[in-house]
Write a structure and sequence with these properties.
Strand content of chain A: under 5%
Shape of chain B: extended
Helix content of chain B: 40-55%
Largest sheet of chain B: 2 strands, antiparallel
CATH class of one domain in chain A: Mainly Alpha
Radius of gyration of chain A: 29 Å
CATH architecture of one domain in chain A: Up-down Bundle
Oligomer: heterodimer
Number of helices of chain A: 16
CATH topology of one domain in chain A: Cytochrome Bc1 Complex, Chain C
Radius of gyration of chain B: 29 Å
Structural class of chain A: mainly alpha
Shape of chain A: globular
Number of domains of chain B: 2
Structural class of chain B: mainly alpha
Number of strands of chain A: 8
Strand content of chain B: under 5%
Strand order of the largest sheet of chain A: 1-5
């Protein structure tokens, strides 16, 4: 540690009684692997979300009171709308940098969820969820669930046509919960859809206070639980279960991580400034009797829309009482099953493999072919259903019949995971048994072999450069016209 | 030699004649001189004469095999055109939806198969078969875009989408309106082509049609205050950009800075275990 750093540390700690905690933090070791940075991308997206969201909250008014719009956007002038939608329009057209910040906020939400997803895949496929990190894995999964809800609530606030339709679908799903669905819906909405005027301010409170604080708290716990047993690392010549090898926080890793923060911010602000996202003025205000064809949720809910679309139409009816209405299958059961699998997997794997030891060394995906194959199969299922969610767009864009697509996706959702399971397992086993790295190592090895003395190499290939000419047999066997002498 | 000259002269005369007809049939250029005031009337008379001649003949050639010689329709093949009106004929022909390639196909937008004059002749003929909607006069500039948006949301967005980008409808396809002209918008409202419901003047007044047409023009060239419009269909392209631009870029940065050049892993692989 450089001299100045040490002096600053001494100054701070002698006044705060930190007793070496800061020094310890600065000496914290980060193992080197680029895939360990996915979680950091999510964390930095969250920081940007909080920063931009704070600015937006200064101007947004979560009220369902009706006003007549008289703002800058001409095509909506004279239209009656809620204050919420009107303030979102004003925030986009009249507030300084309002549209930029709103677009950065929305892009950051999309990237936040994507980064969590990629991070989750890394954790799953390297077995980083095993003891002692299983609790932290549950914390991370819970953050993912909360982030999905937070995103949904966020774009539902604006009260434009798309968000209103999203809430209508959400309401239908809430009502579909067996036995308690009706009460559940009334509890959330304060009555029948579209709910009481309070509903929007409740959403706002949940979006800007409850969920962000929950996520931030869980994030703090997440980081503490990462640091407590130190980072996991891949197996190497020196990397053992009992050590951590990598770069220290200061003066090395902190700067690198800061670079990643700046890169994330740069990408998000670039998109926010150049690429339009959720142009609410083009959707118009929402009223319960209005709707638009082709309404879609943000990407992280695409798999639920896909599941709602793919599920064949059937309810469970007893007498004239509908016990389980159709939206339950795609909207509750499917995500419940996927997250149930993710939450239960560490336990399942412990029972099935009998391995209850703590692990600080990560698996490569091929080290545990069955786990990798199961994970890949579940992921394939979710991705297939996700694509089915955009089937109506594919129909308009590419002209593939919508009904055909539904049947195709139903078939693929059942077949592809099985195919992927066996293909992944076979590939993993092959790679594990061969012991090479698929990207870095082609399997070619250096081989030493004596030259055959009697065969003159009269016509060498163009650009051929003999090596080890000292040991070449004497005579005219040595190729001429090479670039050796030039 | 003389024969060739005769042919050349005849061709020239024909060309000149055709040119004269075309020039006369052109819509009048608004000029205030009295000399050209007479022209439109002559043109209108002329086109009317040719329309009445040409219509039945064209109909017989191109439409009668499915719709019958008198436009009475053929059971199981094509509907009667007795009450289709000029508006329906004009809409289907100008958007290239008719003639259909095969009976039972969904009529889709394509290159129109007839020229302007032929379409006018067919319109007139189909209109003469019985009572039906006339071609509405649509003036988007007379409409109000905010009223148009409200009406479009109430009556059209359920199938065509709020941005007019089209979508799945039950049993068919609600086409995108990116190429629809104001006249076609008005005709479609009055005619209700294929699966679309028809709207009478009582439901949507001519003034409201003007507003809707004006709003459709806005969707064809929407205000993109936020940058590249990426298709104006909302979250699907946004998700694609989020993953394939933003996430891809950030992961690439992570890949580049994630491992120190010649870093600890490289050392480990090179060093012998101690």
């Amino acid at each position: 540690m450089p001299m100045t750093t040490r002096r600053v540390l001494r100054t701070v700690e002698s006044r705060t009684g930190g007793s070496g905690a800061l020094t310890k933090a600065l000496r914290y070791v980060f193992p080197d692997h680029w895939t360990f940075l996915f979680g950091e991308v999510a964390m930095y997206s969250f920081l940007i979300l909080v920063a931009t969201g704070t600015y937006l909250a200064l101007f947004f008014e979560p009220s369902t009171a009706h006003v007549v719009y008289h703002g800058t956007y001409a095509p909506l002038r004279g239209t009656e709308m809620t204050k919420a939608y009107a303030s979102a329009l004003n925030l986009s057209f009249e507030v300084q940098a309002g549209l930029l910040i709103r677009q950065v906020h929305h892009w950051a939400a999309d990237v936040f969820l994507a980064a969590i997803t990629v991070h989750l895949l890394r954790i799953f496929f390297t077995g980083a969820f095993r003891r002692p990190r299983d609790i932290n894995y549950y914390v991370g999964l819970t953050m993912l669930v909360l982030a999905v809800v937070e995103g949904y609530v966020g774009y539902s606030l604006l009260d434009d046509l798309l968000s209103g339709m999203g809430l209508a679908i959400g309401n239908a799903v809430a009502l579909s919960v067996p036995l308690v669905g009706g009460q559940f819906g009334v509890l959330l909405w304060g009555g029948r859809f579209p709910g009481t005027p309070d509903f929007l301010s409740r959403l706002f409170f949940v979006h800007v206070f409850v969920l962000p604080i929950l996520i931030a708290t869980l994030m703090a716990i997440h980081l503490a639980l990462v640091a407590r047993p130190h980072h996991s690392q891949f197996r190497g010549r020196r990397q053992k279960e009992g050590n951590v090898i990598g770069t220290p926080m200061w003066p090395a890793y902190a700067l690198r991580s800061l670079g990643l923060f700046f890169a994330t911010a740069a990408v998000l602000f670039l998109l926010g400034g150049l690429v339009q996202i959720n142009p609410i003025w083009q959707w118009g205000p929402y009223e319960p009797w209005l709707g638009t064809n082709g309404a879609q949720p943000d990407w992280y809910l695409g798999w639920l829309i896909g599941a709602l679309r793919l599920m064949p139409h059937f309810d469970i009816v007893i007498g004239d009482y509908t016990l389980i209405p159709n939206p339950f299958w795609g909207g509750v059961l499917f995500p419940g099953a996927v997250f149930g699998f993710l939450y239960l997997w560490p336990t399942i794997e412990r029972r099935w493999s009998g391995d209850r030891r703590p692990h600080n060394l990560l698996d490569r995906p091929r080290d545990n072919p069955t786990r990798t194959a199961i994970g890949a199969a579940v992921f394939t299922l979710v991705v297939t259903v996700f694509f089915a969610g955009a089937a109506d767009r594919a129909f308009v864009q590419f002209g593939v019949s919508y009904e055909f697509q539904l049947w195709m996706y139903r078939a693929l959702a059942m077949l592809l995971p099985v195919v992927v399971f066996f293909a992944t397992r076979a590939t993993c086993r092959h790679l594990r048994d061969r012991g090479g790295h698929p990207a870095r190592d082609s399997g070619a090895r250096l081989v030493e072999r004596p030259r055959e003395a009697s065969r003159p190499l009269s016509r060498p290939a163009r650009g051929y450069e003999p090596r080890g000419t000292e040991t070449a047999p004497e005579g005219d066997a040595r190729p001429t016209g090479t670039t050796k002498e030039e | 030699m003389r024969r060739a000259r005769q042919i050349a002269m005849a061709a020239l005369a024909l060309l000149l004649g055709a040119f004269a007809v075309v020039a006369l049939a052109q819509p009048p250029v608004t000029r205030s001189s009295a000399a050209v005031e007479v022209r439109p009337e002559i043109a209108a008379l002329e086109s009317q004469v040719s329309r009445l001649d040409e219509g039945p003949e064209l109909f017989e050639q191109s439409c009668s095999s499915c719709h019958g010689f008198e436009g009475e329709g053929v059971e199981g093949q094509a509907p009667s055109l007795k009450h289709a009106g000029e508006a329906a004929a004009d809409f289907y022909l100008r958007t290239g939806r008719m003639p259909l390639g095969q009976v039972g196909d969904e009529p889709l937008r394509g290159e129109p198969r007839f020229g302007d004059k032929e379409i006018e002749a067919l319109d007139a003929y189909v209109g003469s078969l019985g009572e039906g909607p006339a071609i509405p006069k649509v003036e988007p500039s007379q409409g109000s875009v905010s009223e148009g948006m409200r009406l479009f949301t109430e009556s059209c967005a359920g199938c065509h989408g709020i941005g007019g980008k089209g979508g799945v409808a039950i049993g068919g396809y609600a086409p995108p309106l990116g190429e629809a002209t104001p006249a076609e918008v008005g005709e479609a409202i009055r005619v209700g082509p294929y699966l679309m419901p028809r709207f009478s003047e009582g439901t949507i007044s001519p003034a409201e049609v003007n507003s809707i047409a004006r709003y459709v023009e806005l969707t064809q060239n929407p205000e993109d205050a936020g940058g590249f419009g990426i298709g104006h269909i909302g979250p699907v392209p946004e998700g694609l950009v989020a993953w394939f631009a933003a996430v891809a870029a950030v992961l690439l940065v992570a890949r580049l800075i994630g491992e120190r050049l010649g870093g600890s892993r490289a050392d480990d692989e090179a060093e012998e275990p101690r």
